């Protein structure tokens, strides 16, 4: 029997120590078992793998960003990792398991110096020849992205042992015992508790075992009850709406209080008011809130329905038929064409390209713009027609669904059942195509669906839609709690007064028959409840519904704003969650994705320098004579200019030194397939200038030079990686000469130039500086001619290096260093990574508004820095703090030293602007508990932060770190599925919409189509919403306390009997009818400053960040003002009307007095609304004066009708007594004037002697004063000259973003002269 084991496992010490794995041994046993999971630690280079994924044989780690923490791998036995219960300590992977759990609680992060692999060992017995270890890794070890995954094309390896080896049997026994202990431990109370915690957090289902998928056998697959392919991003469904909605509504203290009030109103002899005066308005409030939630969630359901209704071609019999995505099932075979999005997680079976290759774009998943290459198994790549693919039979034993975007393990068994007729094929990350990715530059492909719907890796990375509460809502909730405490204290005080009255004053109140009253707890409690009902309206019952209505209307304003409408994609702004609109005016940090958010993901070849002469596609009028056009370059080449030879070599290099593959369509138009958009831009640039790359064969390429086709033999390709920062091709030209063409970053090219004969170095350097200041991505271009003998000797060295087993990458680099020397500089290229329109201006304006911007991207470090420069996030004056360490110790040491240095310089008065740049690997260490505070403190001191090579969940963790430790409102903006976790983790999530397949917009609170619209969204709509909501809340509390506190003052006069001063329904009408419009109009239409002024003076945005309009202090100032007004209203009204005898000889009585007091208070609060209103519209007139007119018309009608229908008798015959009294009219008009004179005087004093910034801007707006400030563009031009010297020390971004290695063997498999299959 052949046995396979993991050489890293600690338990293998029981085996003979002399038995080490043999390089080159086969990973398969004689019966075709699955590949062994061997991991060699001998290779010192963790990036030596040329296959683009973790390779156990080479000890390498893939170069995709998630290798540093993009999710847990499932083990090779198909057991998905339960990240909520496993205990994985921190090592090079960067996190414990909680770091990868979308439902993770960052209070529970353990600290440990060891790492355990995130899965248990399988049982080891004679029936299972496969074995994978679970060795603890040291702190500096790398936790693999795909531990133990088999790789297609790996050298075969084997290790066999005798079945009766005594030491082997002992090891089996120990391993089996350990497995049993772990299994029992997982089933204990802790395991149950962890499972319950996961369920409470809404975590995904955890699976065990392996998934068996029968190809094209729907009946067999149906037995496993795999979920459908429909996805849902909505908050509610028919079943969950009521419980979820009620839970959310009654998390607000006000609603709980009103529900309690409504209940005690039903108790006989307790309520002094009608039993329905609270439950009716509360029901109305909940109904309005429910309708709003339903309307918003219907939009989410519609968005989901649109996505689930997309069509895909599914194999039915031997033909493909179009079916909606929701109908796709596990086991289906699908056909997709170029630019289609993958509807589910699919295993690639075959494609139109040679050897089953296909290109995919994953920017929607990981933010990377470069195309990835996937390759089907050679066993299925020949199935290129519907009849052939329909003949495929067998099954797939797959890992269970998990959230690791970059790992996959499965075995495809082809043929009939039984060992004799079946063939087992390993499947890995090279074959998996994930939902959310897009097929690019590939005519068609066939694939097998393995995961659908919410089991896809994309959806397993998504978190449940959170219920977000704004800071203002939370503050109001707390203040309501304080008011409830005050209300309870007042009620208890009144109840004590009632008790004292009953026992101390009963003799004076003989008519109340109180002599037999005894102290009773029941009576005391009833008295407390009575006074609670009397004073319950101190909390405005209409506040919640008014806020909901106002927020909804503000969301409508956002949706209908034509300034945020993008006509190109016909996409308006869409506010999906209106409850968060006020937080748009308080944002302090913006976390932005790069690709598709800041950039258009379009590379364009803009300028170049050849032989020291600058050329550009478009020459600015001011630079004519200094910069020449591309057309003039062609003329120089054709007319034999002194630089003609240099131009020819330059363009030949662009057309030959690359890994691009040309595709010619029916019309003869060539499309360039490239794993790097930069490479495609360079080849396209050469095409424009007459050097057209037309054909690629395995050993040569064809270039059409001004119509003449030439063949260039590709001898060697020295590939790009992050260490080399360059790429070279060794080409034998049509003339038979061997030349080395090299392109790369200026720093590495200049140091490899020949010492003599460089005519253009100084000029090229100056032009590189100019390109860098314009934010262009630059490459230096160089070449040298290699003598035949020298090449032959070097080729032997290179072949030996390529054959090296251990340390192959280092040997290849050494070989490259030998030949890449004494280069001749030809020039430089400048590529524009096209920014979205208005991005630099938007970022500059937002920074002026006091907002710090952090860019979190899955793209490369150089690319991210370059974009930071071009979009003005990073300016030339900033010092870059680049964190790029290999282990936790070095990261902590670097961060600590830099933090101390920055603190010392700040203490010394040096406030140099800083920009922090950190890669995903270092970030994984920086987020550990022992250093995340250091990282955060340093990051906060920087004006800009760029995190590159980060995984989707790392983005969310950065947001959570800031959210947890800083009292700041955070906004996250992105366009892809990789941004969803970040968007949901922030207080406000903004998604970029308008492009198909962008899931971020469906999960966001607000969707806009362009980054530049963020400026108006925040500076205008956000500021308005915050100021309006602040005014609405403060005014709502003011108006209620101003009236209802008079009931408390009246208690002292009615001997704490619980009698109310006003008629019961009239008190209810106060909130529901008479004062409902002023707060709505203030909240919807008020503008303290116009939109033009808010855009011109972005500093006004800081008012929201500093809580200038709403804070605890301001809230209680308004409460104090309301208390004072209520006391004055009560005292003055009782003084005037207490013993008043009307002209008819009638005594005024309680209802005349109470109604006069009521109307005086009403006019006071309406006049207060007029005083605080900053803008008067027709709606303001309707709401404020109109409300008083309506009240004066409604009350007489109500007073006549109510007694007739038996609703109320208090107002019987009251109309003639009131409306005919001059004292009544003088009181209700004079009291408000008296009260608000002080308020008006204080407002005028503040404006004249203590003006706020917005007061000044209001004056500028009112009198239309001109703005003499220098424009931003002029200022930027002025400082460019001053900073010219500083630019010399800047790091320029260079134009490489392709997959780092592994391209050569792929492009050499192409022969574009062959006709492609139709599929």
TrEMBL record:
* Protein's cellular compartments: Golgi apparatus, trans-Golgi network membrane; Membrane
Domain spans labelled P-type ATPase A? 307-375
Q: Where is the composition biased (Low complexity)?
A: 376-392
Note the InterPro entries from the entry. ATPase_P-typ_cyto_dom_N, ATPase_P-typ_P_site, ATPase_P-typ_TM_dom_sf, ATPase_P-typ_transduc_dom_A_sf, ATPase_P-type_domA, HAD-like_sf, HAD_sf, P-type_ATPase_IV
Q: Which residues form the active site?
A: 593 (4-aspartylphosphate intermediate)
Q: Which residues form the P-type ATPase C-terminal domain?
A: 1001-1252
Recorded hits in PROSITE patterns, A to Z, give: ATPASE_E1_E2 (PS00154)
- Compositional bias (Polar residues): 17-32
Q: Which domain of life is it from?
A: Eukaryota
Main enzyme class: translocase
This protein is called what? Phospholipid-transporting ATPase
- The species is Leucosporidium creatinivorum
């Amino acid at each position: 029997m052949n046995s396979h084991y993991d050489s890293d496992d600690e338990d293998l010490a029981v085996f003979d120590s002399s038995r080490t794995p043999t390089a080159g041994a086969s990973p398969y046993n004689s019966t075709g078992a699955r590949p062994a999971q061997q991991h060699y630690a001998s290779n010192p280079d963790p990036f030596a793998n040329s296959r683009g994924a973790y390779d156990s044989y080479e000890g390498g780690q893939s170069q995709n960003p998630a290798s540093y923490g993009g999710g847990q791998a499932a083990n090779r036995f198909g057991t998905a990792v339960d990240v909520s219960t496993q205990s994985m300590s921190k090592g090079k992977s960067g996190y414990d398991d909680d770091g990868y759990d979308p439902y993770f609680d960052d209070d529970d992060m353990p600290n440990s110096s060891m790492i355990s692999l995130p899965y248990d060992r399988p049982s080891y017995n004679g029936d299972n020849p496969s074995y994978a270890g679970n060795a603890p890794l040291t702190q500096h070890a790398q936790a693999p992205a795909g531990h133990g995954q088999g790789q297609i094309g790996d050298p075969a390896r084997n290790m066999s042992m005798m079945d009766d080896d005594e030491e082997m049997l002992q090891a089996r026994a120990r391993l089996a015992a350990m497995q049993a202990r772990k299994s029992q431990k997982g089933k204990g109370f802790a395991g149950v508790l962890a499972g319950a915690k996961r369920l409470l957090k809404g975590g995904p289902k955890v699976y065990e075992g392996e998934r068996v998928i029968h190809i094209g056998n729907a009946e067999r697959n149906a037995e496993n009850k795999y979920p459908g392919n429909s996805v849902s991003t909505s908050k509610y469904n028919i079943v969950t709406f009521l419980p979820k909605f009620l839970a959310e509504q009654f998390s607000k203290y006000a609603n709980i209080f009103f529900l309690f009030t409504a209940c005690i109103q039903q108790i006989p002899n307790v309520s002094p008011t009608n039993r329905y005066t609270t439950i009716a308005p509360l029901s109305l409030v909940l109904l309005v809130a429910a309708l709003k939630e339903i309307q918003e969630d219907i939009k989410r359901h519609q968005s989901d329905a649109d996505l689930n209704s997309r069509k895909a071609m599914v194999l039915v019999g031997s033909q493909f038929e179009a079916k909606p995505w929701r109908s796709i099932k596990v086991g289906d075979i699908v056909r997709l064409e170029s630019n289609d999005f993958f509807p589910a997680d699919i295993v690639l079976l075959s494609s139109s390209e040679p050897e089953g290759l296909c290109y995919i774009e994953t920017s929607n998943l990981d933010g990377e713009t470069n195309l990835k290459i996937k390759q089907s198994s050679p066993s299925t790549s020949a199935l290129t027609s519907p009849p052939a693919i329909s003949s495929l039979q067998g099954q797939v034993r797959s890992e269970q669904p998990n959230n690791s975007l970059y790992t996959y393990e499965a075995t495809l068994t082809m043929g009939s059942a039984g060992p004799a007729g079946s063939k087992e094929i390993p499947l890995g990350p090279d074959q998996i195509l994930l939902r959310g990715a897009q097929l690019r530059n590939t005519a068609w492909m066939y694939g097998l669906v393995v995961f659908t719907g919410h089991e896809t890796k994309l959806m397993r990375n998504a978190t449940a839609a959170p219920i977000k509460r704004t800071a203002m809502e939370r503050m109001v909730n707390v203040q309501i709690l304080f008011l409830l405490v005050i209300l309870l204290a007042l009620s208890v005080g009144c109840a004590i007064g009632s008790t004292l009255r009953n026992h101390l004053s009963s003799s004076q109140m003989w008519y109340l028959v109180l002599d037999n009253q005894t102290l009773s707890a029941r009576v005391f409690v009833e008295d407390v409840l009575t006074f609670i009902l009397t004073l319950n309206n101190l909390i405005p019952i209409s506040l919640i519904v008014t806020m909901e209505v106002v927020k909804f209307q503000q969301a409508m304003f956002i949706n209908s704003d034509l300034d945020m409408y993008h006509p190109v994609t016909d996409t308006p702004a869409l506010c999906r969650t209106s409850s968060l609109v006020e937080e748009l005016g308080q944002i302090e940090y913006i976390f932005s994705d790069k690709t598709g958010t800041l950039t258009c993901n379009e590379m364009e070849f803009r300028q170049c320098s050849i032989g020291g002469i600058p050329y550009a596609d478009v020459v600015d009028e001011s630079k004519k004579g200094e910069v020449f056009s591309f057309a003039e370059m062609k003329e120089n080449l054709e007319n034999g200019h002194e630089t003609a030879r240099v131009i020819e070599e330059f363009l030949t290099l662009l057309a030959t030194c690359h890994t691009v593959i040309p595709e010619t369509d029916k019309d003869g138009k060539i499309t360039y397939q490239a794993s790097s958009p930069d490479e495609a831009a360079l080849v396209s640039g050469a095409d424009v200038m007459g050097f057209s790359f037309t054909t690629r064969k395995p050993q040569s390429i064809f270039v059409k030079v001004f119509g003449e086709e030439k063949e260039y033999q590709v001898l060697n390709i020295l590939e790009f990686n992050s260490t080399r920062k360059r790429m070279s091709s060794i080409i034998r030209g049509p003339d038979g000469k061997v030349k080395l063409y090299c392109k790369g970053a200026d720093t590495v090219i200049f140091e490899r130039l020949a010492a003599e004969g460089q005519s253009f170095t100084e000029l090229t350097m100056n032009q590189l500086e100019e390109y860098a200041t314009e934010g262009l991505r630059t490459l230096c271009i160089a070449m040298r001619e290699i003598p035949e003998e020298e090449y032959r000797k070097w080729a032997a060295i290179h072949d030996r290096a390529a054959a090296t087993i251990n340390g192959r990458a280092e040997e290849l680099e050494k070989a490259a260093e030998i030949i890449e020397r004494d280069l001749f500089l030809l020039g430089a290229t400048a590529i524009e990574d096209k920014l979205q329109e208005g991005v630099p201006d938007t970022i500059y304006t937002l920074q002026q508004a006091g907002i710090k911007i952090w860019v979190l991207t899955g793209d490369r470090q150089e690319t991210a820095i370059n974009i930071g420069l071009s979009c003005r996030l990073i300016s030339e004056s900033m010092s870059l703090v680049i964190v790029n360490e290999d282990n936790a110790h070095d990261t902590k040491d670097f961060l600590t030293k830099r933090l101390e240095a920055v603190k010392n310089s700040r203490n010394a008065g040096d406030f140099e602007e800083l920009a922090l740049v950190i890669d995903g690997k270092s970030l994984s260490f920086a987020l550990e508990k022992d250093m995340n505070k250091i990282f955060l403190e340093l990051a906060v001191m920087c004006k800009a932060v760029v995190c590159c090579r980060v995984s989707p969940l790392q983005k969310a963790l950065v947001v959570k770190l800031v959210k947890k430790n800083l009292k700041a409102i955070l906004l996250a903006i992105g366009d892809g599925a990789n941004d969803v976790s970040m968007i949901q983790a922030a207080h406000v999530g903004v998604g970029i919409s308008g492009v198909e397949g962008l899931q971020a917009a469906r999960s966001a609170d607000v969707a806009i189509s362009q980054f530049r619209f963020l400026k108006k969204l925040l500076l205008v709509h956000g500021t308005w919403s915050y100021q309006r909501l602040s005014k609405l809340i403060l005014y709502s509390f003011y108006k209620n306390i101003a009236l209802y506190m008079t009931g408390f003052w009246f208690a002292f006069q009615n001997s704490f009997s619980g009698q109310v001063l006003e008629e019961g329904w009239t008190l209810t009408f106060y909130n529901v009818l008479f004062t409902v419009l002023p707060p709505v109009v203030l909240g919807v239409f008020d503008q303290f400053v116009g939109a033009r002024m808010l855009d011109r003076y972005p500093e006004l945005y800081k008012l929201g960040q500093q809580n200038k309009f709403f804070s605890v202090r301001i809230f209680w100032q308004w409460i104090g003002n309301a208390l004072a007004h209520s006391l004055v209203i009560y005292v003055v009204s009782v003084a005037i009307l207490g013993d008043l005898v009307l002209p008819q000889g009638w005594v005024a009585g309680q209802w005349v007095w109470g109604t006069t007091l009521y109307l005086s208070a009403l006019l006071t609060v309406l006049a207060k609304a007029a005083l605080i209103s900053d803008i008067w519209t027709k709606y303001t007139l309707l709401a404020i004066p109109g409300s008083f007119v309506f009240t004066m018309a409604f009350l007489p009608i109500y007073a006549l009708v109510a007694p007739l229908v038996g609703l109320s008798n208090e107002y019987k015959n009251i109309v003639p007594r009131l409306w005919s009294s001059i004292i009544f009219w003088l009181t209700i008009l004079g009291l408000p004037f008296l009260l608000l004179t002080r308020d008006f005087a204080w407002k005028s004093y503040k404006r004249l002697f203590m003006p706020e910034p917005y007061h000044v801007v209001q004056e500028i707006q009112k009198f239309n004063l001109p703005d003499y400030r220098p424009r931003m563009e002029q200022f930027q031009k002025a400082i460019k000259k001053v900073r010219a010297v500083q630019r010399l020390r800047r790091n320029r971004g260079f134009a490489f973003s392709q997959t780092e290695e592994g391209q050569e063997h792929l492009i050499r498999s192409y022969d574009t002269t062959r006709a492609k299959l139709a599929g």
